[in-house]
Write a structure and sequence with these properties.
alpha/beta, Rossmann fold, Alpha-Beta Plaits, 2 domains, four-stranded mixed β-sheet, about 30% helix, binds ribose-5-phosphate, NagB/RpiA_transferase-like, Ribose5P_isomerase_typA_subgr
């Protein structure tokens, strides 16, 4: 029986098949992406590739730097050829929830500036409709209690995400994360519009119309799903 980490490693390794010489690659964040970055570093070395990485979190920057992958910031490049990232949930119509690792803001900036995005997930992340995974919303600390109360009154079942020491977790941009426990999202586009309209909300974890390629790790092997 293959365990979840083995499935993550499988898709992480598979994803670097889309990487070619001289590409600028967006590097996502999370436990699945970690395997992809390992595989990418090996491929760069083995094939002597010239690759520039654009990271989406301090965590990814640390790993990529330790493996010798050359990095630039998103503002230092004129384009990103491809971004490879994980996801927390992917619906049958290729929409996703991201931000389980609190990196949604930089991930969305990098994704929206990429010519192509690929998500790598194990089979447990596939759902019919989004919403079982709590939807992260990044908010600036000032006024965040007011936003929380508004979400609460709309029955979004909000919770502030906490750090290991019990304090409110701070993102790489020093913001808070409010997780919405929605169970099922009927209209992700409508919800995304509502969330973006709230003053103090910096970004939310609904990644809509972002990818058309998803690599899924099944016990039988990786499968590449392409949107029609
Ligand atoms: O903020 C974190 C990211 O959106 C991750 O890509 C997402 O949470 C998936 O992470 P993992 O591969 O660890 O399940």
């Amino acid at each position: 029986m293959v365990n979840q980490n083995e499935l993550k490693a499988l898709v992480g390794k598979k994803a670097v098949d889309w990487v070619f010489d001289n590409m600028t690659i967006g590097l996502g964040t999370g436990s699945t992406v970690k395997y992809m970055i390992e595989a990418l570093a090996k491929k760069i070395q083995k094939e002597n590739l010239s690759i520039t990485g654009i990271v989406t979190s301090a965590e990814t920057a640390k790993q990529a730097t330790s493996l010798g992958i050359p990095l630039k910031s998103v503002d230092e490049v004129d384009h990103i050829d491809l971004t490879i990232d994980g996801a927390d949930e992917v619906s049958a119509d290729f929409q996703g929830i991201k931000g389980g690792g609190a990196a949604l803001l930089f991930e969305k900036i990098v994704a929206t500036n990429s010519k192509k995005n690929i998500w790598i997930v194990d089979q447990s992340k596939l759902v019919n409709k989004l919403g079982s995974f709590p939807l992260p919303v990044e908010v600036i600390p000032y006024g965040s209690k007011k936003i929380f109360e508004r979400f609460d009154s709309r029955k979004f079942h909000p919770t502030f995400r906490l750090a290991a020491d019990g304090s409110k977790l701070r993102t790489d941009s020093d913001n808070y994360i409010i997780d919405l426990h929605l169970e099922q999202i009927t209209d992700p586009f409508k919800l995304a519009d509502y969330l973006k309209a709230q003053v103090g909300v910096v970004e939310h974890g609904l990644f809509l119309n972002t990818v058309n390629t998803v690599i899924v790790g099944y016990t039988s092997g990786p499968k590449v799903l392409e949107a029609r």
